[in-house]
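debug: dumping io for the single-chain case to check the tokenizer round-trip. Nothing else runs in this session.
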Amino acid sequence: MRGRYAEAVVTKKRVSSRDFINAYDREESSGQLANGTAKDAGNPHWRHSLVHVLAATVSSFLFGYHLGVVNETLESISFDLGFSGNTMAEGGAFVGSIFSGWIADGVGRRRAFQLCALPMIIGASMSATTKDLWGMLLGRLFVGTGMGIGPPVAALYVTEVSPDYVRGTYGSLTQISTCLGLLGSLFIGLPAKETMGWWRVCFWVSAIPAAMLVLFMQFCAESPHWLLKRGRSVEAEAQFEKLLGGSHVKSAIVELSKSDRGDEVDKVKLSELLYGRYFKVVFIGSALFALQQLSGINAVFYFSSAVFKSAGVPSDSANICVGICNLLGSIVAMLLMDKLGRKVLLTGSFFGMAVSMSLQAIAATSFVSSSASLYLSVGGMLLFVLTFSLGAGPVPSLLLSEIFPSRIRAKAMAICMAVHWTKGYQVECSYAFASILPCSGLELDFGVGQTMDCVSNLFCALKQKGKCENSSSVT
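debug: decoded output
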């Protein structure tokens, strides 16, 4: 019996995905699925796919950890090595994000996660053991490469393995995991100011979840979408059964056939994405990530210690409050994502950030007392992080992985993430030159930016509530 099954797998697994899906279409049209279990079983149980999604969110935890690991430890690293920022990590992330789509399409989502973890292990080890600045810079470059690969692959994987009715909730788990990573780096970095060389421990610790990601992905399901595009039809069926349950396999194949008609793995030309048939949707996606970064959120996380210190607030407690606000907002977003829809959360998020930046701009003027200025600046910062995590944080990557056609999804996400890192670096540079602006200039600048973001989303954001993957229209 086993040999017969193996023979069937060998015979069928390279069947054209188009022919394979069309066979299911013929069954549906002839009524063979009309009374089948897939139609009567309702929604697949969320528990089947949850464990695979949770494993994927380890990459998001690593992203958040490395985003914040230099926050608490920056002073001691600077004293020991002369290190002063995250520029090398951002450069590596830009490079990693560019190639992430080609990696995910070439070796699959699972292997892409494992490849993402390797430079993080290597880079963390180099940073932890280096005795000079160049070793730290090279280590951060390696880590940044993994940071660039991880987020787009996580967005792809979560979208492709999640049932429709919980896709928004599961997509928010990546943001929650990022918040946990940020909080983890803050807590682990607390002894850095009192314990000499503690920053080395902080980098060593990050190698543990990276190794866990490699191990977990060895046992997780591969994306059935990717397998079907590669012509591995029987394997795709097996993965759908693992993710959704046996009674939902046929309906999942039929739904996939309706969404993208089983596109084959023909090469997507860069011209199609940059100025061809897919330019409009890629432009909207890139603009959404640009607006996200123009909010200044990465600069807030990178330099929150310095910002609160200048305001006279103890940096340790302030940074933990920032992390908790980020986590709470992400949890609320997870609960509301599939109820209110992406557009409502995104627009409300940008509006809230505009209000928070306005509060900080007022705090920096001479019209308020010193005590009021302190409360407004700190309260505005916490409100900014909270409202960001409600929509502008989790929505863009989830929304774009849903609206991009399967044929271009990975590569289009790569382009959008490259824009994300480019704009993030520009915003960080604006903080470096903040001293040449009037005291409230930077806050006012970002406040105007949030208002523009809010208006842009009112006109351009996609209404995604209750829609399945690939069923959106770009208007």
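debug: round-trip ok. The mean pLDDT is 78.
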